[in-house]
Design a protein that fits this description.
single chain, mainly alpha, 2 domains, rod-shaped, Putative transcriptional regulator
Length: 71
C-alpha cells in the first residue's frame, strides 16, 4: 500500500523531471488530482489534551467517558 504522501512525491517528480502536466502525471501514477491538491489541516488541541491529562492524574479511576463529562 502506498501512502498519499508517496503518491504526491511521485507526481511532483514526474512534473519536475519529465515536464508533465499535473493531469498527465496524476493519470500515470494512478491517483486522483484531489489527493494531490488536498491540504491537510491539523486542529491544535494541546490545551484540551493537557486538561484531560490533569483530570486523569487527579481521578485515576475515571474512564475516558467520565473525564469527558468533566471537561
Amino acid at each position: 500500500m502506498v501512502t498519499p504522501g508517496a503518491k504526491r512525491e511521485a507526481v511532483a517528480h514526474a512534473r519536475e523531471h519529465h515536464g508533465l502536466s499535473e493531469r498527465r502525471a496524476c493519470s500515470l501514477v494512478g491517483v486522483s488530482r484531489r489527493v494531490i491538491r488536498y491540504q491537510p489541516t491539523r486542529v491544535d488541541d494541546a490545551p484540551l489534551r493537557a486538561r484531560l491529562r490533569e483530570l486523569a492524574a487527579e481521578r485515576r479511576r475515571f474512564g475516558y467517558r467520565r473525564l469527558g463529562y468533566l471537561l
